[in-house]
Amino acid sequence: MSNREIFYSARKFQVARQTVALNDGTTSRRELIVHPGAVVIMPWVDANHLCLIRNYRWVIDRTLFELPAGTLSPGEDPKQAASRELAEETGYCAGRLEKLLAFYPSPGILTEVMHLYAAEQLTPGEPHLELDERIEAEVFACDEALGLIDSGQITDAKTLVGLLVVERRRKRGGA
Fold first, then answer.
1. Is 133 a catalytic site residue?
2. What does residue 68 show for φ and ψ, rounded to 5 degrees?
């Protein structure tokens, strides 16, 4: 955007101001977060089991059930990032990655686009966590993972999106 002014840069995002046109013909300055995007991975251990992670989130001081995910490096291909993040957070290497969709987690304030991938033909290995990550991988039957939504144990938006996309595909006859 030509009228976007970055006034703060952090390690993974920037904060900007932008002038937007209002319905009455006037303009207003608004703040937004500029983010390079991210990947979310649905790791299929086999046809009926997937890997979720328990991820401690210091921002909310809680451990959440999540799909593995991570921020794109500038200019990084999302498919390569999905492969990298899957290996880092779970230890699994995918023989096959398929992009399912892209979505905006919070378009009212954030430019981030999340790219959802299905990972199949997994080979186990050791995770390589960053120093600030407290992550444990756990395998669930698909129905068990979906039950974690019903019981309120999954509250992470990207994980809800990923699991609900899978459930829709299963109901239509394609996993």
1. yes
2. -60, 145
